[in-house]
Amino acid sequence: MKFYVALSPAEKDRAFAAALQHVLTEICAGRLQFPDTQGNERVQERIDDAIEQVSVEEAPWFAVELVYAAAKSEVDVLARDVARTTFYLDPGERAIYLGEQSATVEQPHASTVHAGRVRAT
Asked: What's the mean pLDDT when you consider all of the chain?
């Protein structure tokens, strides 16, 4: 198992890309929202507007791109934080994820982010 600091530059890039995809997926699914406090410059409102535009245009495959364009800097900060706080498994290592309903044993790829529900702070 590795921590983010032990990853090579190429692995860090892959970790960030995987974390970014995870964060954007969570936002588009409505499982991650930015609070309206802490002077966040209406981040959630911009995201909601982007998702509404996707709904109006009936182009759900475009949601990730629109959401990312609407809140790129905030999403990047959150994705970088997810990447930095995730454990990375070496080939052959196993992890047990304790979920709300049951534990599962998986052997994910190093670029897979299993952060569960993420909260923006």
From this structure: 80
